[in-house]
Write a structure and sequence with these properties.
140 residues; 0% strand; mainly alpha; 58% helix
Length: 140
């Protein structure tokens, strides 16, 4: 037997070299991870319009990295969802029958917003794309 016969993988297609196989995903740079994290945490300075800072960051930085583009878009979509939920909770406060129960809805939405945004920022800081579990996605 020759040396080639002892190495059965030589000359055979491996999963990474087969046609149609995609290369392993690249880890985003430290800078891209940082900007993606800022997109998820950008709602904090503007509580009345939580989607404003993530929207600005996404529009400015989306060309720099596909990771920033995807994370920023996800953050903007989630903050739009939170804004819609807060407006609905505010409207429910004016309905006499459900108004007393709706008083607790806005704080619950805000707590969920903070918890999910912190979870997202931790994941993107590790270089892992994060998708919010409950989110409308008006921006495709």
């Amino acid at each position: 037997m020759t040396e080639q016969d002892n190495n059965p993988t030589e000359g055979q297609a491996t999963p990474s070299t087969e046609r149609g196989a995609s290369p392993p995903p690249e880890t985003p740079s430290k800078d891209a991870r940082m900007w993606a994290m800022f997109c998820h945490l950008g709602f904090i300075p503007v509580p009345c319009l939580p989607f404003l800072v993530p929207l600005i960051l996404w529009l400015v930085k989306r060309e720099d990295s596909p990771f920033i583009a995807e994370s920023g878009k996800e953050a903007v979509n989630f903050q739009i969802t939170v804004t819609i939920a807060l407006v609905c909770a505010g409207i429910l406060n004016f309905i006499p029958v459900v108004g007393c129960a709706a008083v607790f809805l806005a704080p619950a939405i805000l707590v969920a917003d903070i918890v999910l945004a912190v979870m997202a920022s931790l994941k993107v800081n590790e270089g892992v794309a994060y998708r919010y579990p409950v989110c409308l996605r008006p921006i495709k």
